[in-house]
Amino acid sequence: MPVTHRGRHLAGALLATLLLALTACSGGTDSAGDVGPPAVQPEPGSLPVTIEHRYGSTTVTDPPRRVVSVGYTDHDALLALGVKPVATTRWFGDYPGAVGPWARDALGDAENPTVLDNTGGIQFERIAELRPDLIVGLYSDLSRADYDVLSQIAPTIAPPPDRPDFGTPWREVTTTVGKAVGRPAEARRLVDGVDQELARARDAHPEFEDATAVVAALSEGYFLYGADDPRTRLLTDLGFELPSDLDTLVGERFGASVGSENAEVLDNDVVVWLTDDGGAELRRDPLYGTLRVAKEKREVLVDNNDDFGNAFSQVSVLSLPYVLDRLVPRLAAAVDGDPSTTG
Prior knowledge:
Its main location: other. The chain has 343 residues and is α/β, with parallel strands linked by helices. It has 14 helices and twelve strands.
């Protein structure tokens, strides 16, 4: 929930009071008990670096040690680059430290990060208590008011310019985090590695090329994920085309609900459904049942409550290899139009 104009000033006053109290009682020591994880060795000449974002620019001068992720996927990029965040923001699943199974190896034997709960707005005071030296919020809906408060705590990186809320692609998250922690070449190498896996999947499945696909959920009608949503981008990375009217229906948002009058937008070669009930509600929808996509079972049902569903929605440099192993065979079974093979 964005901070209102009045709420911003209240949060700022609370923050100033908290920081004063922490300074007074700590005597210069870290209230978290230590200086944090060891800094990752930066690549030569990589720091200082200035990163442009929707609210201006942020300069990082030294390798950060205590990084807080207020972006929902940013901690995967940090972990992939060897940086152990002191705090993450929970999005999907109830994993210790909000670190999914696809990222546990990257965390190694480090302590689980503190998990921030963003359901009631950003926990400014809790973040301040962690004494971060960098705050990352690339894949987020960070408002100007949020940014102004966070940047009083530590240098803060907001979403890139010209990207919608929750619309920063995983490649850009990874490379921007790489610049911020002084490892831009390693970030590029990681991105290239995943791109090679995507290319292998496309080569193995030429039937994906030019087939149409959309990601959807049942919510206030049919919720369509737009071209800027990372899950949708994954389908286009695999060769699929999007419905021609998707941009018109969704606009510049990451997604939007449409009514039954627009149900035909679902009638693609594949629909990837995000579900909580194994598709039971979908099967009760008489209108959807009349569409070719339903009759030919050109569907992939992704359970929001399991590891695969969580990884699919995470869409990060670490989750994508995990997802591709599980998603690609299901897309192949759905796109063939044979009702006896299901995704």
